[in-house]
Amino acid sequence: MTAEAVPTPPFLTALAALSARLGSDRDLVQGAGGNTSLKRDGALWVKASGTWLSAALDRPIFVGLDLAEVLRRLEAGEAEPAMPARLDPDFPLRPSIETTLHALLPHRVVLHVHSVNTIAYAIREDGPALLAERLAGLRWAWVPYARPGLPLTRAVQAVLGGAPDVLVLGNHGLVVGGDDERAAEALLEAVEARLALPARPAPAPDEARLARLAEASGGRYRPAAIGAAHDAATDPDSLAMAGKGAFYPDHTVFLGASPVPTPSFDAAMARVGEGGPALLLVEGVGALLRADLTAGAEEMAACLGLVLSRVAPEAPLTVLDASQEAELLDWDAEKYRQSLNRAPG
């Protein structure tokens, strides 16, 4: 059975439309990142792992689960609370890595996005203090970084005493919840308006030099296809930050262990023929991606440019350490998601 053979239930139409809107806005969602859910009649409907929110109106992307069973297995400390709780055991896609987070929150509709504005705060050491000013009056909570999946769910569980409607996930993203799709979307828009940051302008990429590098690589590299990716290389401040390390999980999952190499043009010419790193930010020239990478990697290269252009050069930053990156790279759930992560079409 294929996912396309399973029709999307009519009651998911509003969630699918909202998901498609979110997934089509690169400032909120990049590639297969982010997830949405709806609780109804004792069931949890959540985005399937590896699917793109932008495709929600084109194909079935939601997996149905027995909500009480997920919560029971979570409470029992099981390593995999979601998969055994599927309503249709034959449905070919796995529920989102973040299914337990969606199950844990009391809201009927939950939206998890990788907002570039939010991440620009969430990677700062002083992020919680800055957010406290901008989110004053909302019920919100800061969640220190934890690996996506069960560790993140446990970290969220620790802050639910204040009944927050907004969660800012350290070095990760944003979660909002509401009584229905309209309320959740309105809250997301309100948070985005409060956290909006101007993007620092960046010089245009040097397309001629990028073409020379791609040719010198013998097909191992190609220029990044999304313009924002080049901003991290042509803006000196963004380039300096990019070399510090990985700032959020999807960067490591799709672009490999940090730091991103930031060579000069001559240094890049000397190494592109050897292949290697997924992403090269060539100083003052632009971004090169390894030619074998998927559309998900293209999106993450763009995300880096979008995030760093919103961060002040003097900001104190936090990056994922080597052990945090290692647990992402060795995680079977993320390997599965990456294997599916090609652009819908």
TrEMBL record:
Pfam families: Aldolase_II (PF00596). SMART domains: Aldolase_II. It comes from the Bacteria. Residues 14-199 form the Class II aldolase/adducin N-terminal domain. This is Rhamnose utilization protein RhaD (Predicted bifunctional aldolase and dehydrogenase).
